[in-house]
Amino acid sequence: MSRFEVDYIVTVAKNQSAETLAAEICLEQTVEIPEDCIPSHVREKGLPGKIERIAKEETSDNRYLITISYLSGIADSSVSQFLNTLFGNISLKNNIRINGIRLGNEFSSLFPGPLYGVSGIRQALNVYDRPLVCTALKPAGLSSSELAAMAYAFAKGGADIIKDDHGISNQRYSRFDERIVRVQNAVREANAKYGTSTIYAPMVNDEPSVMLKQLDLCARNGIKGVLAAPSLIGYGAFAEIRRNHEFILIAHPALAGTFFYSPEHGATPAFFLGTLFRLLGADISIFPNSGGRFLFSPSDCDSLCDSLRNPLNALKAAFPAPAGGMRISNIPEMYDRYGKDTVFIIGGNLLQISSDLSESAGMFLSAVSAVSGKSETA
Amino acid sequence: MSRFEVDYIVTVAKNQSAETLAAEICLEQTVEIPEDCIPSHVREKGLPGKIERIAKEETSDNRYLITISYLSGIADSSVSQFLNTLFGNISLKNNIRINGIRLGNEFSSLFPGPLYGVSGIRQALNVYDRPLVCTALKPAGLSSSELAAMAYAFAKGGADIIKDDHGISNQRYSRFDERIVRVQNAVREANAKYGTSTIYAPMVNDEPSVMLKQLDLCARNGIKGVLAAPSLIGYGAFAEIRRNHEFILIAHPALAGTFFYSPEHGATPAFFLGTLFRLLGADISIFPNSGGRFLFSPSDCDSLCDSLRNPLNALKAAFPAPAGGMRISNIPEMYDRYGKDTVFIIGGNLLQISSDLSESAGMFLSAVSAVSGKSETA
Question: How far is the C-alpha of A358 from the C-alpha of A148, rounded, in Å?
Fold first, then answer.
């Protein structure tokens, strides 16, 4: 009867002990009944969570790292049941933050991880020696043909990946079915003409039954990647894209932010946008770069990169993609911070630096190639 | 070109104005590019969010209620795109809390609301004059036949609704397909024998493609209700249960808690578990009762009840279901607080008060009938 471990950082109140809080979590997340009501055969099966370790944080008076193990069989039937076990009810409590997990091989079919990962995407793009260059089709409100023209220019300029802005999905001014055909045709045409290998990744953000048809349409049109936000479409829906299709899968953090607001409750960015999204199958995980419009600290970003790239069972490494207000001018600093196995995303700034978007994309690629000490591959 | 309005409570920092923050939200949630890059025809279409009102909270130095309107067409293509527009990227920012929305009729097909609502459920149960009595099958780890025996006893005792514990879904010790048939048979048998009208609502918590099969199986077995957590299975997946099936739909708040941790960021319980879940189609919305194991205040709970019951476009009223550590002994106080149109859920306490669960359920029903000034309907 195998078990898996979850590390929580807990911040205890004055009248509370870490042991009591840990014991509450053990029951709340599993049997959800008072200790004295647990049938003995349920206890013997190992259903209640078990406190494995409690360690006080050295730098804090009231913060502890507690490790609780759960029976794998309570959590491995679905992605949503896994998350339910980790944090379902205790999300409604206070001062509990998921810091990490350790899973055994019994989770390998639930969580196959990235289909391509860093190595597979590099192979698909034939780009090995520099960060990847990603641009975004925006703003929402442009027509499908305007977005297709934009994509053509970005591909001509040598962008590796062109994604929809995450706010563009299936609106009346650019229906999904129409847009993805036009944009993909434009990218294909540019690739043929300029010898580029640009990949287009549309945003899928619809109800499950609609999304399934959209994914089929993408596959039929030779589209190689998709962008999706697990916290919007559902973590299980995201995992099913990985399991049932063959797209390069880019995860967007939209709606996940309430997990990171407090250092005392929710989950670390490294766990949520790193480990969890990689487990769900993200080949690339987009996150808000420190110093941009959002609030992650430099060390949040570093830990997140580690959780995407470092060994994790037999899973492939995934690309971190720092984004949010990035500019061509800070590529050198970004490269120093994040290194080669990174996807750089520049959106708005490309629209600012030239009205010829192929020129903007070309400058982006040149700047990335320059810092990597390599000439352009395109 | 119709628009809808969102009210956010924002808490501004010393060096920040409410106007600047509101203007940032307007761009971040729509076009997501710098002001100077917005094409004029996109601006003319009304794509950028628009500040409608800014009002300082009287009791606070730095808190404002801001109202922003968005073009309905940017948000009404799917539930997940709606949430993306309300809070996708700004979830990753700070000090922004959704307080409410006003939608026009253009959202009526996206959000049909409860299929049954208070009136429809009362009709299905033939119970008009008291709160509804709901019990839970638990703990996780029991076999399907043990859970079926428990359900039989609860039905015999006169419970109106028997739900799976939200942590019981499709585990190896009680597979969904096996459990729901056994439990439903047990409830059907008890109903036939004791003249009760008990409804069983299993927890659905699987990946979208699996869940679809489970829902079909439920329908084929005459199951009338289901329990699901929108934040676990996905908000769109939950909405599709409402749109494509005919179950009494019970919403569980699991994993939603990070929205409520801070009074400064996320969403009010009244908006999220009230308005939003009702829009998605919840007939009953479970929430953590104040004074229990969780953290909602009495006024949080009151506002939540209002948002479920008060007029909202043409939507049916939904039942609030306060839960979490409720006991038979506090039914009078619960009745005073929540009134008649409420679902009372008692789980663990029923296991504590008698080893004969039909007796426990009977005591629960009697206590509810007594405070309502009515004799038992069963």
Answer: 13
What ipTM was assigned to the predicted interfaces of this complex?
Answer: 0.97
Average pLDDT along chain B: 95
Q: Distance between CA A233 and CA A206 in Å, rounded?
A: 7
Please tell me what DSSP assigns to residue A142. B
The pLDDT of B329-340, averaged and rounded, is: 95
- Nearest CA to A67 out of A45, A105, A99, A37 is that of A99
* Amino acid, single-letter form, for residue A315: L
Q: Alpha carbon of B179 to those of A1, B142, B196, B213: distances in Å?
A: 22, 10, 21, 14
Of the candidates A322, A281, A283, A279, the one whose C-alpha atom is nearest the C-alpha of residue A304 is: A322
Distance CA B117, CA B120 (A): 5
CA atoms within a 13 Å half-sphere pointing along the CA-CB vector of A55? 9
Give the closest residue to A239 by CA, choosing from A119, A120, A114, A124.
A114
Q: CB–CB of A84 and B167 under 8 A?
A: yes
Chain B (119-148) residues lying within 8 Å, Cβ to Cβ, of chain A: 138-142
Contact status, residue A316 vs residue A119, Cβ threshold 8 Å? yes
CB-based contact, A206 to chain B, within 8 Å: yes
Residue B163 token pair: 């739900």
Beta bridge partners of B133: B344
- Is residue B377 over pLDDT 80? no
- Of all residues in chain A, what percent carry a pLDDT higher than 90? 91
CB contact under 8 A, A240 and B208: yes
Test the B interface: residue of A20, A36, A81 with most B CBs within 10 Å: A81
User: What are the C-alpha distances in Å from A355 to residues A49, B9, B37?
Assistant: 59, 38, 10
Residue from B26, B31, B84 whose CB has the most chain A CBs within 10 Å, to mutate: B84
The answer to whether B141 contacts A79, with C-beta atoms less than 8 Å apart, is no
Which residues are paired to B343 by β-bridges?
Answer: B132
Amino acid A71: pLDDT: 98
B171 touches chain A (CB under 8 A): yes
- pLDDT at position B374 is 57
- Mean pLDDT in residue range B92-108: 96
Chain A, chain B: beta-carbon pairs less than 8 Å apart: 305
Q: In this predicted model, what pLDDT tens digit does every residue of B207-219 receive, in sequence order?
A: 999 999 999 999 9
Q: Cβ atoms within 10 A of the Cβ of A297, count?
A: 12
* Residue A291 confidence (pLDDT): 78
Each residue of A3-26: pLDDT tens digit? 999 999 999 988 889 999 999 999
Query: Quick one: A161 exposed, middle or buried, by C-beta within 10 A (0-12, 13-18, 19+)?
Result: buried
Does B352 reach chain A within 8 Å, measured CB to CB? yes
Give the predicted TM-score (pTM) of the model. Answer: 0.97
Q: Does B83 touch chain A (CB under 8 A)?
A: yes
Determine the Cα–Cα distance for residues A315 and A79; give it in Å rounded to an integer.
17
A294 touches chain B (CB under 8 A): yes
Q: Which of B33, B210, B261 has the CB atom closest to A139's CB atom?
A: B33
Query: How far apart are alpha carbons A348 and B39 in whole angstroms?
Result: 12
pLDDT digits (tens, 9 = 90+) for A109-130: 999 999 999 999 999 999 999 9
For every residue of A50-111, DSSP letters joined together read: EEEEEEE-TT-SSEEEEEEEEEHHHHTT-HHHHHHHHHTTGGGSSSEEEEEEE--GGGTTT-
Which positions 231-260 of B are in contact with A (Cβ < 8 Å)? 231-237, 239-240, 244, 253-260
